[in-house]
Specification:
This protein is of the alpha+beta class. It is built from 2 helices and 2 strands. It has a domain of 65 residues. It is elongated and about 95 Å long. Keywords: Cell membrane, Membrane, Transmembrane, Transmembrane helix.
Length: 97
């Protein structure tokens, strides 16, 4: 059932993308300082979205690496606490009355 929903969503996304490309096929002049390129508007929009997604992913890499490091440290602390707890449970209880 889940795969069927994913396939339907993928087909809808392809159809929306195809219709977007057909509706925005007008050429646009893009000035990249010394370089001038004429591209369809849909290509310019899709490429700018792709560049934005790549830059956002690169910006998040530092945060993800920090979270991975923190996660490792926390797992180490939990393991040490569990080891200490198991050692404390093995110590016999002394009754001094």
């Amino acid at each position: 059932m889940r795969k069927l929903i994913l396939v339907i969503i993928l087909i809808l996304a392809v159809l929306v993308g195809a219709s977007f490309t057909l509706l925005n096929a007008d050429p646009v002049l893009v000035n990249l300082y010394a370089l001038r390129v004429e591209l369809p508007l849909s290509v310019v929009i899709f490429s700018s979205l792709l560049v934005g997604a790549v830059l956002a992913s690169i910006a998040c890499v530092g945060l993800m690496l920090r979270r991975v490091r923190d996660n490792r440290q926390l797992h180490k602390r939990v393991r040490l606490a569990e080891d200490e707890l198991s050692k404390l449970r093995k110590i016999p209880i002394k009754d001094h009355y």
